[in-house]
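Subject: mismatched residue count in predicted assembly?

I count 1080 residues in my input, but I want to confirm that the predicted structure covers every chain. Input:
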Amino acid sequence: MAIKSRRLREIPLAMAMLGPSLLVLITFVLYPLGKAVWLGQQMCDVQGKNCKSVGWGQYTNVIKSDQFQHALWVTVKFAMITVPIGLALGVGLAVLADKQLRGMRFFRTIFSSTIATSVAVASLMWLFLLQPSVGVLANLGWLHNIFPVIKEPGLLNDSGTALWSVGISSIWANLGFTFILVTAGLQSVPKEMHESAYVDGAGGWMRFTNVTLPLISPTLLFTTVVLTSRAFQAYGEMDLLTNGGPIPQDSTTSVTYLIYGSSSIIKNNAGLQAAVAVLLFVILLALSALQFRGFGKRVHYGS
Amino acid sequence: MKTPNKSRLLLAGLTASALLFASCGGGGSSSIIDPGTTKAPASGDSSAPTEPPTTVATPLASLPACDTTALDSVTDTIDITFWHGMNGDLEKALIALTDEYNASQTKVKVSLENQGGYEQTLDKYLQSSQDSRPDMVQAPEYAVQVMSDTDSNVPVGACLESAAYDTSDFLPKALNQYFTEGVQWSMPFNVSDPVLYYNKKVFEAAGLDPNKPPTNMAELRTMSQAIVDSGAAAFGLSLDTGADSGGGWFLEQWFAKLGELYSDNDNGRLAPSTKVNFDGQTGIDLLTELQALVNDGLAYNVGDNASGQDALLKLADAEKPAAMTISTSAALGTVLTTVQGGLIPGITTDDIGVGPMPAPGDADAPGAIVGGASLWIVNHDDPAKAAAVWDFISFLITAESQSTWAAATGYVPVRSSALEVGAIAEKYKTDPRFKVAYDQLSQVADTPASLGAILGPQREIRTLSARAIATVLQGGDVAAALTDAATQANALLSAYIAANQ
Amino acid sequence: MALDTAPKGWRSFARYSMLTIVALFILFPVYTTVIAALKPGNKVLDNPLLPNAFTLDVLKNAWTGGRLGRYLMNTTIVAFIVTSVQLVTSIASAYAFSFLKFPLKRLVFGIFLSTMLVPLEVTLVVNRRTIDSLGWLNSFQGLTVPFIATAFGTFLLRQVFMQIPPDLREAAQMDGLGHWGFMKEVAIPLVRPTLGALGLFSFLASWNQYLWPSLITTEDDMNTVQTGLRHLASSDLDKPNLIMAGTIIAAVPILIVLVVFQKQLVRGLTAGAVKG
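Triage response: the counts match. Full output below for your records.
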């Protein structure tokens, strides 16, 4: 009885505390989601108005279309490049630097630093490196004698290297985030865990795989989910580095670039843009669920 | 255990569906712009007309009015906002002009708002509600159909009438670029067309006359051969496949030069186009020619020109420069400033030559389509505001203003009287390079073909043709690439008509 | 593995070498950027690896011509507003989910969580229209309000709140502390490191935002440093040193924040939050 009345008694307080957040989240996240789903079966004019229904078949049409499938494939490839490498690098560095040795603090600062770069800053720095005429790498004579692709046609203009180049700039930019997160995860592992394994005579690598990794698995899962989500929504890098090109292979046209990019053919078609965005959401949802289910069972939770 | 089986099932399910829809597209190719869904929905669906389309003239009376005298009765200063997409040196010149205007009178004060580029300006305009739109906006030449379809503007023609403005000394091409459906929608302001930039020093070293650039592609080929053979440069021509340049805009230019229609319904000027023509013999010949140049090592493809300046930068390449490139005349001012700043070692500004855009094949086909952008008056149901915008526009198109503007930028003055006054008169005398772009626009009579196409999804179609050209320059089959691009372009056109008309 | 039985000196050498190699990879783009930013125009291309010329003019130009000073101020204001309000709303909602009892709690929490999965692309255009109809284009409200609530922050703080032992709550109740008192005296102090981390992340995310500000800003005065940077890049590609100078100006403030608060950031995340 007391519990019941407490539940009702605390409603006003709960509303006050949750209200603002809920209002903002509903207005700026859930409502647009709903609207986008609805828009996905509409055809609108260039101003996004005068929308008429063309049926839910528009979604199927998008799924079956070459452009969407290609963009999805590019996005998946991009994720497959950036997430494993970024994660491995972040974990490796965090483990190596997680010691109270001389100079480690300096290294840790460097490895964390890229979290301070925005997409624009990081992409521009890498554009300056990779541009085939006025870029740094292109103006080092000895370098592009070994790797002619740097200048002809340029790492960002060659369909084989473009996605990798964008990927490397993205890995670079996200390294700070990964490093900080994994370091935090490592530092939350009680030292006794490491030490007991050491005493048991386990070697460094074995210790790493059998003790350290499982202990930081929640962090790894979280980091993977975030990195994957970022990779799937990659846009700024492509916008600044390659414009989704090189054409005609569209090697760096990610799904988001397909929606908003400057060379997008669905630019003035609000219905198609919404459909692609919603499909991206569904895929991300499925992917996150898969990651939690699939790797979640391997995740150790605390003590 | 239950969980592993569940997750395995989930994994299998996802893989299966991924494979399923991957194989779905395996058959024929399917475009995201599906003609199937672009049929206009049930209400008022029309079948293809059997009679030839007649001019769709929109009576001026049905459009928002412009009363240029509305400014006279106003006592306070009217603030007007102007969205534009000019960057770098172009922006500086625009700021100078605007400051001059603001200082010269007290009735109107103009605030410039740079949106970052043509596309961003257009995108933001389209996405904004009418109240959030500025009083005046600069829209690029490919946006005529789109802008007029927004029904959000006061046509400049209404102001011209109200003020009984004399446009007789205007470049007909410039005005006609923005004249469709019987209405003068906007006022040309910054007019450009493509010209040939070339390195005179390389010409000399190759034994060519530095004052005689090639006038068509056949001559260009011969000269490129001489240049490459002599080792004066690594390539004759630097090509790009950007939608706003070598991949899209130039294609329309070449069609216009040959007097060929780029799309049906008189290039979209009689009625909205339903199909493009670039997959015909003209297009095939054009692209075959370009492909041959690249295959024979005479031209270099810099790619899709994400920066807008890649083709020009190839001339400055330290190791394998090109000798010539086609680029917009609007870049001339920047090119000269950059060269002066020393970007290309050993080259002074005198070494840069400018010639007309080469015609296709061995044709003698001068002329060009007007590029650049125009000024649109936005309708806020406020006669005083509209009159204020008109006042600013009329300042920007005076002979003096156009003269100053053209001299500082490389844009072409929109009226011939500007050639006799101010800075451009000097410039054309002392530096005839700036006049090449102007001459190109006054050499050919105005016909629908020579004026170029007006399309709803014009920029998107340019990206499609750019894709075709890129395929071709990398060795692909010309006819197939063009047909593929044309099919998608036609689908875009149908979709546009269904959604907007 | 041989590495473990190898002498300590070799292991140490291997460790330091690997760290140094990666550190060089991290620093290389920064190095070339800084060098370019300090070189006059005509020297930029001839030796990109060596600082063979020096001038501060480029930085000055980027600051004044690029109006980066104004943009930096805008960005700072926006980041501060978003961060502080996010902290407040996150604490409030996390507290509600942790310590209050009310009907439909799980449903509401589910709604919160689901918003974390909605990508930006889906919401951008519709949000722009919403902001437009509110008349909030080119305003600080438009730049901040859509982000003042975060499910991520709520989730993070809830994790930490849930670790507070219930006897602590009971003891506080017996001392006569209501919810407000408990929050102030007990809950918040206990999660201070996490608040620090969350605040830092929010600040960083807000500072680095690119897509949204470019979408809703049409007046140059309201540009943030990221959109201003993009403008610089598109207008002056023939002056790469100018763009690089702009990049540095845009990144330095946040870099300073990071270096100063690095330890707090890690400590905050370590406080059990990321365990999930």
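The mean pLDDT of chain A is 85. Marking this ticket as 'not a bug'.
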